[in-house]
Amino acid sequence: MKERLVILGGGESGVGAALLGKKHGFEVFLSDKGNLKDEYKNTLIENSIEFEEGFHTEEKILNADLVVKSPGIPKKADLILQLNSKNIPVVSEIEFASRYTEAKIIAVTGSNGKTTTTSLVYHILTQAGLNVGLGGNIGKSFAQLVVDDVYDYYVLEISSFQLDDVATFKPYIAILLNITPDHLDQYDYKLELYARSKFKITENQTHEDYFVYNFDDDTTVELLKEINTNAKKIPYSMNTEMQDGTYADDSNVHVNYPYELKLSISEFSLRGRHNVANTMAAATAANILKIRKDTIKRSLSDFTAVEHRLETVLKIGGIEFINDSKATNVNATYYALESMNTQTVWIVGGTDKGNDYSDLIPLVKKKVRAIVCLGLDNSKILSAFEGLVDNIVETKSMQDAVRAAYMLGKKGDTVLLSPACASFDLFENYEDRGNQFKKEIKNL
Predict the structure, then answer these.
(1) Where in the chain is CATH 3.40.50.720?
(2) 113 assigned ligand-binding residue
(3) pLDDT (tens digit, 9 = 90+) per residue, 387-421?
(4) What are residue 67's phi and psi, to 5 degrees?
(5) Is 111 part of any known ligand binding site?
(6) Rounded Cα–Cα distance for residues 215 and 273 (Å)
(7) Rounded CA gap, 373 and 393, in Å?
(8) Which of 197, 187, 434, 209 is nearest to 322 (CA)?
(9) pLDDT (tens digit, 9 = 90+) per residue, 71-112?
(10) Alpha-carbon distance 233 to 244, whole Å?
(11) Does the annotation list 112 as a binding residue?
(12) Interval 305-326: pLDDT, tens
């Protein structure tokens, strides 16, 4: 008799898991409380996979042998608690997919810089001629890639929510970029619980694997004293010389493990101190994989920045517009404001995730001319920054936000969309928010 696989959530990861389950002989049923996109619905119909949308039929779910849960469904959801009480295993799509491939996995997690670093690692490996797939939180789901499993390497961007539900997932190289407060609403507002979920990226690694981590991140370094990893630990640092790791001085990045590699920071295509750190992590992984030095150097100089991450859009009337819609937490916005070299009109707001804006106050005082709030509830932003800038306005649509920012700006200023919040109050996702921003700029 076939094992019953139930997929909760019919987005990219859910449909990928359904296809992989079908390929490996499961009786597959997919359930989504919302409405499925037409492309996903058509895929399920074409592959004769049973599904429902708009509701969950509990009796069709609670008889599962295995459940693959969308990362967007909270661990405390009633249905998940019921599955737990019946001892029905609930795993993430990342975990499920990893069971059906022997390829080497390079997995990247962290509060900030995941997409940039994952894309950069993929770029280096592609330039080196390796057979590599890109997935996880970026591009296709891991499960969708593993359906055909034609790659020798997978480079995956992975969130804490995906790591919460892993059991045996074991990357060859795990990269932990940083741990700063994010998604705390899902972790009882405790940074340590969120941090420990990030560390699940290394819990199944062996002495043959590698754990690349940020030596400058205090939370990571403290937890490493408590959480054992069997992997070979490779630190990187902007501040401390690393004999068995990677470090930066004023001009160069020095990769010292397993081979010595010297890289000129002035030749990196990515700008900003935070991107030097991301580049160090990527170069360290490439060096472990024995990529040729000249390939690494060339790849770091010709890599193009990720869409929605400090993306220059247009200059209108002497005002430059920058799209940083992917900045969904305070720390990401800190880096964006830090990198501004002009007076800035800052568009901020959305769904708050337990944000503490106090770290931004010195940068706002120094660099921000005006604040445009873009969200349904801006009370926290207003109370944090009122009196620090001459103008704070509230808007409820991207059209109004862009027009207000343009009116508040002066020649030589920058309008920066860096929301520090999730997008779900007014937009489908951060991509939708960024795309609407770019569209409204062109409509000015």
Answers:
(1) 4-88
(2) yes
(3) 999 999 999 999 999 999 999 999 999 999 999 99
(4) -120, 130
(5) yes
(6) 15
(7) 6
(8) 434
(9) 888 888 999 999 999 999 999 999 999 999 999 999 999 988
(10) 9
(11) yes
(12) 777 888 889 999 999 999 999 9
Q: What is the CATH number of domain 311-442?
A: 3.90.190.20
CA distances from 291 to 137, 234, 244 (A): 25, 17, 18
Q: Where in the chain is the domain with CATH 3.40.1190.10?
A: 97-302
The rounded distance, in Å, linking the Cα atoms of 393 and 110 is 32
13 known ligand binder: no
Residue 443 assigned ligand-binding role: no
Among 208, 211, 136, CA closest to 173:
211
How far apart CA 112 and CA 334 sit, in angstroms, is: 11
Beta strand 246-248 with 232-237 is: parallel
Question: Residue 313, Cα to own-chain centre: how many angstroms?
Answer: 22
Q: Which CATH number fits domain 97-302: 3.40.1190.10, 1.10.10.400, 3.40.50.720, 3.10.105.10?
A: 3.40.1190.10
Known binding residue 180? Answer is no
Phi and psi dihedrals of 160, rounded to 5? -60, -35
Helices and strands: H and E segment counts in the chain: 17, 20
Residue 109 in marked binding region: no
Length, in residues, of the chain: 444
DSSP 60-78: HHTT-SEEEE-TTS-TT-H
Tokens representing 47 are 């592959």
Dist. CA 77–CA 58, nearest whole Å: 13
DSSP 341-363: -S-EEEEE-SB-SS---GGGHHH
Encoded tokens for 278: 């991301």
Residue type, 294: D
Question: Which segments of the chain belong to CATH 3.90.190.20?
Answer: 311-442
Residue 424 CA to residue 432 CA, distance in Å, equals 10
Residue 220 identity (one-letter amino acid)? T
Homologous superfamily of 4-88: NAD(P)-binding Rossmann-like Domain (3.40.50.720)
d(CA 324, CA 243): 35
- 126, 104 in Cβ contact below 8 A? no
C-alpha 226, offset from chain centre:
25
Q: How far is CA 296 from CA 258, 281, 289, 328, 375, in A?
A: 14, 12, 11, 30, 42
CA–CA distance from 214 to each of 218, 247, 277 (Å)?
9, 10, 8
Give the residue-averaged pLDDT of 10-20: 96
The answer to whether residues 353 and 420 touch, using CB atoms and an 8 Å cutoff, is: no
